[in-house]
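Person: Please comment on this record:
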Amino acid sequence: MSVARVGYCIVLTLILGSCAQVGTISGGEKDTAAPAPIPEKTVPENASVFMVGQEVSIVFDEFFTLVDPSQNIQIVPPHAKINARAKGKTLYVSWDEVLKDNTTYAIYLNRAVKDLSEGNDSIIQYVFSTGATLDSLYYDFPIVDATNGRPVQDVTCVLYSESGDLVNYSLSNESGIARMRYLATGRYKPLVFEDENKDMVPQVQERVGFPADSIIAIDSSGIFDPIRLFSPAPKAEIEDVKYQPPASYFVHSTVPLIEPRVFVGEVEVDTSLFAQISENSLQVFVDPDSIFSGSIAVHSELMTDTSDYRLLKSQAQTNTRLYCTAPKNTFAPSETVSIFANDIIRAIDTMKIAVYGEDSIRIYPTFSVKRNELLLDFPFEKTSDFEIVFDANAVSTRVGENTETSIKVKRNSAKKYGSLVVTLEAYTEPIVLVVKQGKTTVHSIPITTFGEPVSIEELAPGEYTFEVIRDRTENGRWDTGDLSSRTQPETIDFFSKPTKVRANWSVEITLHPTHP
């Protein structure tokens, strides 16, 4: 029998188009059930052998409409071109070509059948053989998100023959399992992807996954190792440029900006006039007289790109404003208390800045300026609630002076924080230890030498989880995969059991990977 054999029993896998919803005057709930075939009225019956005809009729339990049947109805192996027509509640599927002998075929209705009123669709598979038997093996392919390890539903899983012919496909269920039925013993090339446009071909923007070995051998029914679904690397470019009053722009890129150089027009910007806000974004301060139009170019290790900016005069703002960016205006003991201006600071008048601690006692920190940031350095370890009072004109920027402003901040005691001591003795290659609180990454720590535990200080009380990135490229971050070069995304070990951190307490933990 041919290796290129596929199929599976007619499976009424219903993908609901919408949630049940009660209308105000309809008198009932929406029909959330997709049209379903009536098995006993299917001719020839599903799983038939010695198939000699060239037409199948499938009777449904309700009226339906066909959606792009030339694209959404396929026969696999693709030895024929499918014709489809609907009459009443019956779908007629036919072909003109003579099929190969002793071959298992499957006809796939990939969301081609929809309810007339509600638009619910279904995925239906009908199988038959031109020989005496149907291929009987099945194989399960678990599909998980490469970035969080969770199962992914509604992902297309395809099997190709060694020569590249499509021989089987399925969709992953709510548990992330794509089951291939009626397989023949043979060697296959699996591929999973989010088929957004339903063309059965992975597109450059679609998430994709594949096993480390391109070809797998199937000689019995079973389950494969999880296939990790990943987003392809984005095109390296400036994603957007947003105006930040009074005279700066936030520049966001699609890739990390490593040792960036910035140009406004043809002039390179001094490092004192731009700041890296995050791995992928910069704040670039421009000439206040040139804020309305121009171009910003960024040159870095992974990207060189230019973007134009244009601002209406009615959108421009010139007021100097002071603010604190720390969460809840709270600083840990090791953090320097800082206040930001919305433009480059040119001068400060310390006589017009007063800092008050508990009981309104005046405190005299040392002030320093970095770009648009005012830093307050206390001569002793002072933990307290503070009020920083700025008289008018205390801070001068390129566009003017501040108005009278009062900002309350808090500097916590070390006793309000806990710490972690993490042992990673099972790891010997470069990794990145990621510490998370909920969905927020609190710390991302590259580690290249082993033997000593990793101490993480000043953690707010709460529960933390961990991830360990196997840093194959040794760049201190997670790297995605690539289909064209068959490169796998970097492996992430997930440690989802929470570790509770208490104030003024140190917790020791050891992270053991579940695989080498």
Notes: Helices lie at 69-72.
